[in-house]
Amino acid sequence: MLVQFLKLTISEIDKFRLDHSIDPSFETVVLGERTANQCLEGFLVFYTRILDQPNLRYSFTNFFLEVLKYYHLSLGQLANVGFACIMHFEILCCALSHEPSLVLFRRFFRLARNGDWYTIEKT
Questions:
Q1: In which region does residue 84 sit, left (phi positive, over 0), alpha (psi from -120 to 50) or beta (all else)?
Q2: How far is CA 121 from CA 89, 108, 118, in A?
Q3: Is 80 exceeded by the pLDDT of residue 31?
């Protein structure tokens, strides 16, 4: 399997963060020659190409990031259906005037392996 490394400059990272409304309080680190499974402790790996698809936007709320952290997932490991499930859960909680929580989320959903990907499915 071919391994590719995309090296962004600081100005490219700043532009990417601005273009995609990524909160400036999130610390950014470039992996360099490390692969996604060699991510630094406390950080999430993010593939910038995931946002190259037109009209595709992900909501990186505290709840969304809490789910990823709980399951020890990087963004590149979660199938699109899993993304949608987490976001829909959060939207429904807000629509019902409930604060989304990991405890509540885990009552309804669980992590499942789908080939080389992970997804979220009903419990």
A1: alpha
A2: 12, 8, 10
A3: no
